[in-house]
Design goal:
222 residues, 8 helices, alpha+beta
Length: 222
């Protein structure tokens, strides 16, 4: 027999349109400065900050509220070294053999390569694992979408609290399951190095899409 969740009143605070616009513009300005960073400081980051960002990720919506994610936060230097060695092995194979010329040409302006020193420099590595099957043995739904949203929440939370991160996705990532000893119902989704930027950190001068490129409006007739 299916158990139906009990319901309670929605906790919702209504704001004036002026205040909503002010809040929206403020959040946009905050996120507009978010950048993917590959040069990290080794300055320690308290565990409670990482925990809060993961808690925020856990508020994301998910298919049938199955919450098909699990986060592993690593600050152990030996484990980070193992992850770097394994990741660089896969990345080198990708850059030298797996990636098409078109793919490499697309990455060229950003200046990335197979070397990933940030996997040891960053004080934390946070791996998101996706679960097609839950710990209760039941199927999860919309796993990719759910984990993607949760990871987006995590990125926003990290930036909001004043740290930087990078969405690192070496392919394949099976080595993460082995090194971190994860169960068979989990597969690596994204690996996030997290910390403070290095003092000399630089980022590519990227341009984001303007409003005309970003959205098409289909509005009701007046």
């Amino acid at each position: 027999m299916t158990h139906r969740l009990s319901k309670h009143p929605l906790q919702f605070t209504e704001h004036s349109e002026k205040e909503m616009l002010t809040r929206a513009q403020g959040f946009y300005r905050l996120m507009q400065n978010r950048r993917s960073v590959r040069s990290f400081s080794s300055q320690p980051v308290p565990r409670q900050l990482i925990q809060q960002a993961i808690l925020t990720a856990g508020t994301a919506p998910s298919g049938a509220h199955r919450q098909p994610w699990h986060f592993v936060a690593v600050s152990n230097a030996d484990i980070q070294s193992q992850i770097r060695i394994a990741a660089e092995k896969e990345e080198r194979e990708s850059y030298e053999r797996r990636m098409s010329k078109q793919w490499l040409d697309a990455l060229s302006p950003i200046g990335t390569d197979w070397k990933k020193p940030f996997l040891e420099t960053a004080p934390w590595l946070v791996a998101c694992f996706a679960k097609n099957i839950g710990d209760d043995g039941a199927k999860n739904y919309y796993v990719q979408e759910s984990c993607g949203i949760a990871c987006g929440f995590f990125i926003a939370a990290i930036h909001h609290l004043g740290l930087v991160t990078l969405t690192h996705t070496p392919s394949p990532m099976r080595f993460l399951s082995e090194i971190l000893e994860r169960p068979s119902n989990e597969r690596p989704y994204i690996l996030f190095p997290v910390g403070y930027p290095a003092e000399d950190a630089t980022v590519p001068d990227l341009k984001r899409k303007n409003p005309d490129q970003l959205v098409t409006w289909v509005e009701k007739s007046l």
